[in-house]
Specification:
With about 60 residues, this protein is an all-alpha fold. The protein is about 55% helix and about 0% strand. Helix 1 (about 10-25) packs across helix 3.
């Protein structure tokens, strides 16, 4: 699937699930966007559609 191709139907659901898996594995939205060539906003919207609970913003502290 081309990076700039519109996602619809089952393809959209599958890609959203894949991105949700990456996000839950601790990848940032920005990292997923960079890795896939899609926009931050596009990744965020797909994660919303996948029912992801978002982490709080900012860097994590080691304590």
């Amino acid at each position: 699937m081309a990076r700039n191709e519109a996602l619809t139907g089952e393809d959209r659901r599958l890609v959203a699930a894949e991105f949700a898996e990456l996000y839950r594995a601790n990848h940032s939205i920005r990292a997923i966007a960079t890795r896939t060539g899609r926009s931050y906003g596009g990744i965020h919207q797909l994660l919303v559609e996948a029912g992801v609970t978002f982490r709080s913003r900012g860097a994590r502290h080691p304590y």
